[in-house]
Amino acid sequence: SSKTSLLNDLGIQIPSWYMTLPLPLQIVIGLFGSLTAIIGSNVLRQVALPQNKNLPPVVFHYIPWFGSAAYYGEDPYKFFFECRDKYGDVFTFILMGRRITVALGPKGNNLSLGGKTSQVRAEDAYTHLTTPVFGKGVVYDCPNEMLMQQKKFIKSGLTTEALQSYPPLIDDECEEFFDHELGLSKTKKSTVKVDLLKSMSELIILTASRTLQGKEVRAGINGKFAQYYEDLDGGFTPLNFMFPNLPLPSYRRRDKAQKAMSDFYMKIIEDRKKGETDHEHDMISSLQGSVYKDGVPLTDRDISHIMIALLMAGQHTSSATSSWTLLHLADRPDIQEQLYQEQINYFKKSDGTLGPMTYESIKELPLMDSIIRETLRMHAPIHSIYRKVISDIPVPPSLASPSEQQSYIIPKGHFILAAPGVSQMDPRIWSNSTTWTPERWLEEKGVGQTAVETYTKSEQVDYGFGSVSKGTESPYQPFGAGRHRCVGEQFAYTQLSTIIAYIVRHYTLKLEVPTFPETNYRTMIVLPKNPQVSFTLRKQEV
Ligand code: HEM
Fold it and tell me: Which residues lie in coiled coils (predicted)?
């Protein structure tokens, strides 16, 4: 037939028995054969051909293009630690056609998070994921220099005065949530079993909206806002990260919700401009009137999109962190009791009642501080931080291959990946690195204290949003480091410790699953699987 003669012309011999098979079988065998040939040649190329000595080693993989996607995606830390053993601190892996170079350890973190804007860019790595969700003109849809100024505007909305006003509001939301929503009270139920992640996600959005987002957002939580949020969130997944535009309903819902959410904030701003709403200490009021260095003011649309970005940035990170912290407390009744004692020691008044949590007190509660720190060490919500490499980055021999004194480059076009979670759980740095040990942070001059010192007191740099500690070489950096360092850290600590204090004052926690929950890495944020716990009213409350 013409088919066989064409293949013959190409020098491919088709056995005659193959041509006698039914067509479907020919197709199956043909596909299988081609796949085997592709995998075979890919394997052969990796094991038999010499690797380019000027580039980082490439992680062995069977399927071209797909590369190590399954290995990395299932458990990134297992992947990073195993690859570090084989290839050292710097190696490249293939992820659905992209070349990702991982740089581990404090020096590796410094290479990407401390990289110059002429070498690495966050916006080129993230914009396809974030712009359809946040909206245009802000964060990664503008030059880095503008993002730095937006971070400055955000910081001015998170003043000490603003943060001081939040704990009573958060407390109030906690009471409303546990008493009314969950029905935990003297007159109703004394024990309630919940999916902790679901409950914490609700409580985090309630408390963030009551404080930072503003009362109109808080009022909208039970209405349309919740649906917009859910649909937007459905567009913030690893699938969206890998494939920015697919013809799927979730992508269409994301785009509709972005517009609706943006209009929702625009209406708040317009209504406020018209007059009467009282809105002290929230972010919208602080962003209004912000002006870039070149004299251009933030538009109302920019403010709306920054508000969406803040909502998304704080929601999953804080829900995950509060859930993991409470899971560890549920697993360690002894620490729950110590935390309760810490609350009593610090807050007990002469009439026997406990005084209110305050912004200042958070810094005075060493155990509270330690349980959050330790949880962030083991469960950093973001396991992979990406940058696009826009000009070749030289890797010194001390990091590339210390034994062979070989240096190489990470070439333009690669992505560079920082995984601060690896140095945070590195057994070479931390004793009992995979065991939740809050006490380690109480040791004077211990590894933890030294790491925090480097993180918070290292070289001070102003990237455009006020002076911050560079922190890129610390083995502990849950809030990132360098120019993209988090500006929500103080807010997160205030929110988390006020919620946790409320909980330990009123309830005891118990795990309602046989073993401590495992980790789900298939979401954007590192989450616990099936986190069932029960809350029980403390005796004096019954
Ligand atoms: C950046 C973690 C809460 C706003 C970051 C980064 C990390 C991080 C690792 C660096 C990302 C990168 O380098 O690509 C966390 C954790 C949180 C938390 C662990 C809670 C436990 C918040 C909250 C807000 C917020 C509550 C808002 C109020 C931001 C912003 C950036 C950022 C604006 C800057 C992004 C950039 O410059 O590219 N955060 N965050 N975060 N975070 Fe947070």
Answer: none
Domain CATH for 478: 1.10.630.10
Q: Is 487 in the pocket of ligand 1 (CB under 6 A)?
A: yes
State which of 150, 151, 163, 479 you would mutate to test the pocket of ligand 1, scoring each by most atoms of that ligand within 8 A of its C-beta.
479
Tell me if 6 is assigned to some domain: no
- Structural domain of residue 535, as residue ranges? 135-384+419-541
Query: What is the CB-side half-sphere exposure of residue 91 using CA atoms within 13 A?
Result: 19
Q: Which atom of ligand 1 is closest in space to residue 321's alpha carbon?
A: 21
Average of per-residue pLDDT across 212-219:
92
Number of domains in the chain: 1
In-domain check, residue 81: no
Please indicate, yes or no, if residue 437 is contained in any of the structural domains. Answer: yes
Query: What mean pLDDT do residues 237-266 have?
Result: 96
Question: What is the sign of the dihedral through the CA atoms of 409, 412, 413 and 415?
Answer: positive
**Mutational pocket test of ligand 1: of 129, 317, 472, 498, the residue with most ligand atoms within 8 Å of the beta carbon:** 317
Average pLDDT over all residues of the chain: 93
Interval between CA 382 and ligand 1 midpoint (Å): 9
Residue 20 belongs to some domain of the structure: no
**Range 7-35 average pLDDT:** 83
Q: Return the structure tokens found at 334.
A: 């002894």
